[in-house]
Design a protein that fits this description.
Elements (H helix, E strand, L loop, with lengths): L3 H32 L33 H4 L2 H10 L16 E2 L4 E2 L4 H12 L3
Antiparallel strand pairs: 1-2
Helix pairs in contact: 1-4, 3-4
């Protein structure tokens, strides 16, 4: 019994470290999706800083820059923009990344729920 408080504090600390690690992995995955042409390909339309705030690779100015998006929008708004931006702006040209598509160009979803969550985690860091 005398070691119970020590054990509980160790378990709590281990849980926090695991949680921090999971968040960091989600953010890293999100940035990868943002910059990869085969997944999000977000730089085809947006200018996006990397984790250090630097613009890398080819950056577009077709759509709004995503600098500071984490401080401009709520998490729920970021999720909606990525999942199906047409709910926020009906005439948008942004692809509905979280909607099942059945077109000549695409079948199924462009991003899974887990990928969308990772992209949102990454965008939330852009403050």
């Amino acid at each position: 019994m005398k070691y119970l408080p020590l054990l509980l504090s160790w378990v709590l600390c281990a849980g926090l470290v695991a949680s921090d690690t999971a968040i960091a992995q989600s953010v890293e995955s999100g940035f990868r999706i943002l910059f990869e042409q085969r997944s999000g390909n977000c730089t085809a339309c947006h200018s996006i800083p990397d984790r250090q705030g630097k613009k890398i690779g080819i950056q577009s100015t077709f759509a709004p820059p995503l600098d500071g998006v984490g401080s401009r929008l709520l998490k729920t708004e970021i999720v909606q923009w990525i999942t199906d931006a047409r709910a926020l702006k009906s005439q948008t040209l942004m692809p509905p990344f979280g909607v099942d598509l059945n077109t000549n160009m695409a079948k199924g979803r462009l991003l899974t729920d887990a990928q969308i969550a990772d992209v949102v985690a990454a965008l939330e860091t852009l403050r």
